[in-house]
Amino acid sequence: MLYSLFSNFVEIFSLFNVFKFLTVRTGLAMFTSMSIVFLVGTPLINFFSSRQIHNPIREDGPKEHIIKKIGTPTMGGLLILLGLFSGVLLWGDLLNPYIWFLIFIVGSFGLLGAYDDYKKIKGGNSSGISLKLKIISQITLALIGILILVNFVQSPELKNLYFPFFKNLIINLGWFFIPFYIFVIVGSSNAVNLTDGLDGLATVPVILVAGCFAFISYVTGNIVFSEYLLIPYIEGVGEVAVFCGSIIGACIGFLWFNAPPAKIFMGDTGSLALGGSLGAVGIITKHEIVLAITGGLFVLEAISVIVQVISFKLTGKRIFQMAPIHHHFEKKGWAESTIVVRFWIISIILAMIGLATLKLR
């Protein structure tokens, strides 16, 4: 909104030209979203606490969770979404179709997560909506979003899959790109959701991935940089940097309240929305595989659950003491802060590897 307003006065006030720079607006979006979360955070936490809006702790989880985390407010994802939308709507180009695609994904997945959190709170257990209903809903929302994208974006790159480390390894997916995109969005959403089990564990990796893709979207949308790095040039996709900047700012603000010991949990409201939006960013920048690298921690968490379920169903035995894998280390006696910081370090390493793929081709 402010970007559109200032653009109309460029001819009168030349100073407003600064708002045409994508880097400036990305920084402003990050600062705006962070500031909103800081301002609203404490009142919202106090309100949730007074209304006893908190998730029941898993009975089969680590015993320390039942003692330390019970009564902690949830649905903190509302804070993140409020900050994110503020940054995007104020500083993003609202005529850009990629922005509206991302707004739909993060908003719809956020609503699904909020409904799931509501069911948990109302039911007094950690079940929420059924897994079947959640997956079907995610697939449906992802499909609607992809159809919106296809309808408004006529890019020749839309159906291509690019492989990092290779200059010319490109696969045209044909119409298979639709189920592939759905898999990326839904898989990313659930992977972040599974990771969100310890104070601050998911927040920092989300910041790192969003930071990587703020840079990736910027160079992908710049014809000079994209040609130099031998990556596909996609017109208009640079605007995604503003969206990523808003994610970073909102998550930094949320981390202030979510750092151990957490004053509020993200809940499915935040984790499903953030995960889905990262998946959406990955597909429109044509760096889906790089997303899997930079977000490797999320992939690891999801795989640990899949392996655990398959092993138990086939052999009756569990590979991990508890899944997702961060709970396995808790069961082994690792302190929560130790797990969180070490997983952050892994995320930093994976983020650097992901960025290195842009040049190593």
Describe this structure in words.
The chain is mainly alpha-helical. The chain has one domain. Helices cover 67% and strands 2% of the residues. It has 15 helices and two strands. It has helices spanning 2-7, 22-50, 63-68, 77-91, 97-123, 131-152, 177-195, 203-220, 223-229, 240-258, 267-284, 288-294, 296-315, 325-331, 336-356, and strands at 160-162, 170-172. Strands 1-2 form a two-stranded antiparallel ribbon. A hairpin with a 7-residue loop joins β1 (160-162) and β2. α7 runs antiparallel to α11 and α8 runs parallel beside α15 (336-356). The longest helix has 29 residues, at 22-50. The chain starts with a helix and ends in a 5-residue tail after the last helix. The mean pLDDT is 89.
Properties at a glance:
2 strands; two-stranded antiparallel ribbon; 2% strand; 67% helix; 361 residues; mainly alpha
Largest sheet: 2 strands, antiparallel
In DSSP terms (H or I, runs of 4 or more residues), the helix count works out at: 15
Radius of gyration equals 20 Å
Number of domain modules: 1
Overall pLDDT confidence = 89
How much strand? under 5%
Low-confidence parts lasting 5 or more residues at pLDDT below 50? none
- Helical content class: 55-70%
Give the class from helix and strand content and strand pairing: mainly alpha
> Secondary-structure element order, as H and E?
HHHHHHEEHHHHHHHHH
Distance between the termini: 39 Å
Overall 3D form: globular
Report the count of strand segments. Answer: 2
- Sheet with the most strands: spatial strand order: 1-2
